[in-house]
């Protein structure tokens, strides 16, 4: 069994805990790899949005398992991490992820510390990394751009138009959305029709985009073709900036 298969075997078939929706507006679901993944906060939603644009993501599970531990009061308790993510690549990796606002960490640190320690111990025992993320890491990513692009990921295919856009950009070299549309189509009506498909190509990484500013601008956002690059080269925040290292804690 290779490392990716070993990590995928750790993903449980069902969440260990069911999210109750009630009337809280910050709870919801996002679609991943043919399944729905629950979130319980705005920060968790932002994390899931980032994961939607991570080309290395192989599997994700919310509330993946419950870990017994001893609480701050010395009594037995349980801890359920927010997510388990598995990532493919030359060095497959798995992450047990806990997401907390900085204010909650400061306020509840005494209660949270033994639970987070149990999560880190469990992760290391299973060949996983344990990651504690706050808004400091998550808000480094171009979330506004991701929110804009996300709906285009499921746009129905128009193979002829999309291939024409990719071929045109490959021919003219690095460009902008406005210039690409002008080079690809003679009429204004065809350019307007092509706009959603251009954003779909960006959202699915067939066309790369410079998202450093966090905003999509049809006049100025850089576009290019680079089949050997991945999404993380489109902005200055690679996954190593999202996930803390041991020295950051």
Automatic annotation (TrEMBL):
Residues 54-135 form the TnsA endonuclease N-terminal domain. One of its GO terms (molecular function) is nucleic acid binding. This is TnsA endonuclease N-terminal domain-containing protein. It comes from Gluconacetobacter tumulisoli. The lineage of its organism: Bacteria, Pseudomonadati, Pseudomonadota, Alphaproteobacteria, Acetobacterales.
